[in-house]
Write a sequence for this structure.
């Protein structure tokens, strides 16, 4: 179970990082901000699901990933609000 989490997390984090880096270079692109926001919510769900699988939502791994991703989602929302 942990190895599956590691494989999926590695692939998903690299894709999420690529989308976030592209979004950083195009701050007025609202479609990309929506995509990054949806990806962030999916990542939060995946991290919390991992927390439920290991039986501890307050484990460092799901908590850190959820908090950092929530910050990225807030930046996406800020972009969507300011560039209407």
């Amino acid at each position: 179970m942990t190895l599956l989490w590691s494989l999926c997390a590695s692939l998903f984090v690299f894709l999420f990082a690529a989308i976030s880096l592209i979004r950083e270079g195009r701050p007025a692109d609202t479609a990309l901000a929506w995509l990054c926001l949806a990806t962030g919510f999916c990542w939060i769900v995946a991290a919390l699901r991992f927390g439920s699988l290991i039986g501890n939502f307050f484990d460092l791994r799901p908590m850190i990933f959820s908090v950092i991703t929530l910050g990225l989602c807030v930046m996406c929302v800020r972009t969507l609000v300011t560039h209407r």
